[in-house]
Specification:
The structure holds two protein chains of two kinds.
Chain A: H1 16-35, H2 38-65, H3 75-92, H4 99-106, H5 109-114, H6 119-149, H7 160-184, H8 186-189, H9 193-206, H10 218-227, H11 235-241, H12 247-278
Helix pairs in contact in A: 1-6, 2-3, 2-6, 3-6, 3-11, 4-7, 6-7, 7-11, 7-12, 11-12
Chain B: H1 2-6, H2 8-20, H3 24-51, H4 61-82, H5 88-94, H6 97-102, H7 107-114, H8 121-137, H9 144-169, H10 171-174, H11 180-193, H12 202-211, H13 219-226, H14 238-241, H15 246-263
Classes of the chains: A mainly alpha, B mainly alpha.
Chain lengths: 284, 269
Amino acid sequence: MGQVTATTARDTFSDPFRQARAGGALVGSGFRRYATYRQATVAGAVTNTVFGFLRCYVLLAVVAGAGGVAAGYRPDQLASYVWFGQGLLAVVLLWGWTDLADRIRTGEVATDLLRPIPPVTLYLATDLGRAGHALLFRFFPPVLVGLLAFDLYQPARPGTWPLFGLAMVLATVIAFGCRFLVNATAYWLLDIRGVTVAWVLGSGILGGLYFPLRFLPGPVATALYLATPFPSLLQIPLDVLVERDRPAVQAGLVGVQAGWAGLVLAACWAVQRRAERRLVIQGG
Amino acid sequence: MASTRAHPYRGLLRAQLRAQTAYRASFAIDLVSNVWATVADVLTVLVLFQVVSTSLAGFGLAESLVMVGLSAAGFATADLAVGNIERLRHYVRTGLLDTLLLRPLRALPQLLLMDLGLRRLSRVGVGAAVLVAALAAAPVPWTPARVVLVVVAPIAGGLFFGAIFVAGATVAFWWVESGELANSLTYGGKELTSYPITVYGPLFRRVFGYGLGFAFVAYYPALALLGRPDPLGAPDWLGWVSPLVAVPALGVAAVAWRTGIRHYRSTGS
C-alpha cells in the first residue's frame, strides 16, 4: 500500500457495488454488536419503561391541571408523546456513545484512517445497524407497555406513519451527527467531559425529553426548532406522530429535520477533514 | 506509619482529594457541570407550572419545589457519598475487584473511596439551595420541630438513596452488563420523589411509593413541613416519622451487598 499520510488521498472503494456491500456489512456488524449485549438491552428497556410511567403520570397531571388541553396536546397525545419518546430515545441514542472519542484518545483512530471507507461513513453505517437493533428490542417494548397501561393516541391521517418513519430515520442521522461532532472534539481536547455534559443537557431539555417544547412560549419554541438541531431529535418525530399540527406543518417539520440532517452531516465531514490534517496519533 | 495504618481509609481519602484536585481547571469544570442536572430538574418544574393554571395534582409551585429540594438534596448527598458504586460492574467485569478483596480492608469502603466523586459536592450545595429557596417561598409555619425535620429529612433521604445505590449496584454480581437496571431506581427514584405522589396512578403509587418507600423521601416530610393534610388520607404524624424509612432500606442494602460479595466468583480468566 506504501506510505499513508493524512494529507495524501487514501485508497477508497471506487466501485459502487463494493461500496454498497461494505456499507451493508457495516450495518450488519453494528446490529450484531448490540445484539450480543442482551442483558444491557433488557436493562435499558426496563429503565425506559419505568421512566415512561414517571413522565406519563406527570404530564397527565399537567394536562389535568391545565383543564384538559396543555399547549395544544390532549391527554392521549401526551401519553403517546411520552411512550413513543421513551422508545425513540434508545433508537436515536442520545447518550453514552464515546466510541470515537475513546479511539482518538488511545490513538486507535489511526486504524480507521487506513480503511478504504471514510470514517464518517464507517461510523454512520455502524450506527444505523445499532439503530435497527434498538428499533426491534428497545423501541417496541416500552411502546407496548404504554399501550397496555395508558390510552394512547391513534394517528388519524394515513400519511402519519410513513412520515413518522422518515422522521425517525432523520432523527437517528442527526443524533449520530451530533454525537460524532461531540466525540470529534477529542481531536482537539482529548478530554471531552465538558462538551459531553453540555450535549447531554442540551439534547435532554431542548430535545423535548423532559417536557414538550410547545410548553415554552411560542416564539422561543419556534426559534429552537429552526436555530438548533435539538428539537429534531425527539420533539419533531413525536409531534409528527401525535399529529400536533395540521398536515402542511407536519410535513414542514420533517423538512426542517432534513435540513438539519444535511447540515450536521456536512459539519461532520468538514470537522473530520480538518482533524485529519492536524491529527498527531497519541504515542508517537 | 502508625497513623496511616490506624486510618487507612483516611489515607485513601487524602490521596483521592489530592488526585482529583490536581488539575484545577478540569475539577472546576466538573464542579460546574454537575450542577446542571439539578438546574434542569428545577427548570422542568417551572416550565410545567407555566402550563398548569394553578396547581399540579393539588400542589402549588412553591410546595412542589419543597419536594424538589428535599429530593435533590437527599439524592445529591447519596450521589456524592456512594454514587461511584455504579462502577462496581466495571470492577466485576475486569476482575479488578479481586485486588480489593486481597487487601486487609473491607471491600465496600475501599470501592467507595477509590473514585469518590468530589466533583458532586457542588450538586449537594445546589440541592440545599433549592430547598432553602423553596422553603422561603412556601408558607411554612415554622416550629422547632420543623427546623429539626428540615435538617433530618434530607439526611434520611441521602441514606435512603445511598441504600438504593448500593443495593442496585449489587445486581452486577449476578448480571454484569445490566448496570442500567439500577438507574431506574436511582435516577428514576430522584425523578419520582420530585413530584407529589398524588400525581401517580394507584398501583404505581402503591408499588414504588409505599412498597419501595419513595413516598417517604420527600412527599410526606414536605407535607409535615407545610402543615398540610395528606389528600390521600394518611395520618398527619406519618410525615414526622417518614425519615425512619432509611433504616429498613439500609438493612436491605447491607443484606444485598453481603449476599452479592459472597456470590462473587471473579472473572475466571
